[in-house]
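Sequence design from tokenized structure. All designs in this work follow the same two-part layout: the structure record, then the generated sequence. An example of the structure record is given first.
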């Protein structure tokens, strides 16, 4: 079996989901390549070693630049806060490594363009971990749309709601709360949560032409975890935007970390001329489907349990009727990446594809700032 030697940078939340993906993919998918957990890189050697022991990495590095110098590493997996994506990805490409980068691709479009140029110049395989494409129910939604079952699409609606930053005591910056620090995150809910909704939307419903957005920062000052200083909060705590898609449909998106009671409620709904689709991350193995072509006396919303072998990815899992969950989306992305090494096809979304989400995020943020419609 051919091997793909992984060097992973960062061992937090995503470090765990990816490591699980690498460990599981070959158990469930027939693939020519097998990932080898060669090295994990983090600044604290003891913590990196503990992670390596727990997940089965062969070695540790404390400086990602050393990781890039190693001949025994084929692919760099970037699981760090957003402000490090570009520097690591560009250097990795220049070192001839494949790059798997967490989302959002970059801090902004300008940085994303440089990343795409570096990756394409080096000609290295790449992908961005917009994993919600690989929830089988969402993949099935794509299939139903591509088959034309919805007909002309009129509306695309998506929400991503959380409630973890309501307390003014939550700090900004540092290990667990870098997402509240604009210097580390780039933006708030727009780049963190709406980026997922936008990636899925572009995939399912095509390009967005223009946007009109509002953002709000509810807590204006927070203590910085690293300096102890009270500093202005520069991220968007909440963002809502509406938009036109190039296919003529209207889009409506909302995200916030102030929706008390919601932890990670990603929902989407698509209304077409003939049928509608609805999906909810809290019930991720179901796809709600309404088909106007059904016999009127039994017409209604169906809740399709996605567990059968002829539904996307499910033939690789257990038996019909049994669910899979969140972690499987990362296993699917690993499997698809390994498959792409066999076929020579790109593993979507590539850097170039993920740049489109970055462009929408930038247009959203500048629309909110200038209180004006913005072209993407
Ligand atoms: N695809 C998804 O659904 C999803 C979900 C969560 C996070 N993310 C993305 O993944 C990335 C990481 O987020 P997370 O939630 O795992 O964060 P996290 O805070 O849990 O982990 C970040 C890791 O980066 C490490 N790190 C920071 N600076 C470093 C450096 N200079 N060198 C080496 N390691 C360094 C930290 O030690 C930590 O291990 C972000 O870009 C985030 O947007 C994606």
């Amino acid at each position: 079996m051919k091997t793909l030697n992984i060097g992973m940078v960062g061992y937090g939340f995503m470090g765990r989901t990816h490591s699980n993906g690498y460990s599981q993919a070959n158990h469930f998918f027939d693939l020519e390549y097998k990932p080898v957990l060669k090295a994990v890189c983090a600044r604290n050697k003891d913590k990196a070693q503990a992670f390596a022991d727990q997940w089965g990495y062969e070695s540790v590095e404390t400086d990602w630049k050393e990781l890039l110098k190693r001949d025994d590493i084929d692919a760099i997996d970037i699981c760090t806060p957003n402000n490090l994506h570009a520097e690591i990805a560009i250097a990795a490409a220049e070192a001839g490594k494949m790059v798997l980068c967490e989302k959002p691709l970059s801090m902004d479009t300008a940085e994303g363009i440089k990343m795409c140029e570096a990756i394409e110049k080096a000609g290295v395989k790449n992908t961005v971990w917009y994993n919600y494409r690989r929830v089988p129910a969402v993949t099935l939604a794509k299939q139903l749309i591509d088959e034309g079952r919805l007909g002309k699409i009129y509306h695309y609606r998506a929400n991503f709601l959380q409630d973890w930053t309501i307390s003014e005591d939550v700090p900004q910056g540092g290990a667990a709360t870098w997402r509240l620090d604009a210097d580390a995150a780039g933006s708030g809910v727009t780049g963190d949560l709406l980026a997922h909704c936008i990636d899925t939307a572009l995939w399912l419903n095509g390009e967005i032409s223009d946007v009109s957005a509002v953002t709000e920062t509810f807590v204006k000052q927070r203590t910085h975890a690293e300096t102890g200083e009270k500093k202005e909060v520069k991220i968007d705590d909440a963002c809502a935007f509406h938009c036109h898609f190039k296919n003529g449909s209207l889009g409506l998106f909302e995200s916030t970390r102030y929706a008390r009671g919601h932890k990670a409620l990603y929902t989407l709904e698509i209304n077409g001329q003939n049928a509608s689709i609805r999906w909810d991350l809290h019930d991720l193995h179901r796809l709600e489907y309404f088909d106007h072509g059904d016999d009127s006396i039994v017409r209604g919303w169906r809740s399709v349990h996605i567990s059968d072998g002829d539904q996307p990815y499910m033939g690789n899992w257990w038996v019909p009727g049994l669910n899979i969950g969140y972690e499987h989306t990362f296993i699917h992305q690993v499997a698809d990446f390994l498959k792409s090494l066999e076929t020579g096809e790109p593993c979507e979304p590539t850097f170039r594809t993920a740049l489109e989400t970055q462009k929408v995020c930038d247009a959203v943020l500048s629309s909110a700032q200038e209180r004006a419609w913005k072209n993407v």
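The pocket of nicotinamide-adenine-dinucleotide is lined by residues 9-15, 41-43, 64, 79-82, 84, 102-103, 129, 131, 175, 192 (CB under 6 Å). We note this feature because it recurs in several other targets discussed in the main text.
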